[in-house]
Amino acid sequence: MMYFIQNVPFTFDDLPDFATHDAEIVEMANSGKAYEEEDLYRSAMYLMMEECNPLLHELELENPELLPVD
Predict the structure, then answer these.
(1) Which of 47, 48, 58, 70 is the most buried (most CB within 10 A)?
(2) pLDDT digits (tens, 9 = 90+) for 55-66
């Protein structure tokens, strides 16, 4: 599962084991853009330079209801 900030890839979560065996989930994942570690590194550095890294800066959210519940 990828997370984005203004369409910039920010971070990801590994899928649980059962999801890797679900044909619909695998098809959806394979149809999207594939990101390399270097892509995530560059986008993370960009977000830090723009002071938009949520781990370092407080951000105002447009759709906070879309965030997962901890």
Answers:
(1) 47
(2) 788 888 888 888
pLDDT at residue number 65: 85
Burial class (CB in 10 A: 0-12, 13-18, 19+), 58: exposed
CA atoms 37, 41, 21, 7: torsion sign: negative
Taking a C-beta distance cutoff of 8 angstroms, is the pair 5, 11 a contact? no
Give the CB-side neighbour count of residue 62, counting CA atoms within 13 A.
3
33 has a pLDDT exceeding 90: no
Q: What is the pLDDT of residue 14?
A: 85
Strand partners, 4: 9
